[in-house]
Amino acid sequence: xxxxxxxxxxAKKLAQLYPETPVPLDHVDAFTLLVAVVLSAQCTDKKVNxxxxxxxxxxxxxxxxxxxxxxxxxxxxxxxGLAPQKSKALVGLAQQIMDQHQGKVPRxxxxxxxxxxxxxxxxxxxxxQAFGVPAFxxxxxxxxxxxxxxxxxxxxxxxxxxxxxKLFPESAWNQLHLRIIFxxxxxxxxxxxxxxxxxxxxxxxxxxxx
Length: 210
Known about the structure:
Layout: H1 3-17, H2 30-39, H3 45-59, H4 62-67, H5 70-77, H6 83-100, H7 109-113, H8 120-129, H9 140-148, H10 157-167, H11 173-186, H12 199-208
């Protein structure tokens, strides 16, 4: 089976398993999604969703967040990993949005990545899920499964992203990256599958051996 055939097979099976692709981070607009994604670094989505209701109740907009003392933000998110750094980043990015973008979350990769605490993956999630721009954010699940499924041997997330973008049509990127994450969490976890035991890995192994 060629790499492209594997990619086509994977995309078809994941679409069957996950016809719907809701964003797992609770949010109501581009700003709350941006905040939630920043908070999700080294944290589970479930944990972030437990914290954000209280945060968004008092700082659910750029103008509100920009006026918040960093210490107050920290108090609200202190149960999350990297809370001190994230507190500063959230207040800083909100202030920059107010100062440089008229209070609106910017709609370009470059402007998003210029915000405090926002890297390429975070920007990609916001562009894809808030603004519908094709993107392929690579998290730890996608990095692991792309290698396990022989879609990419890239050691960096940047290379994995480039390889996946070549294999899958642009129109599928926004849903597919979520489907891979869903599958990695439900079936093909880092410790729960050695590349031979989950349903999709088994199917790929079987087809590859024919």
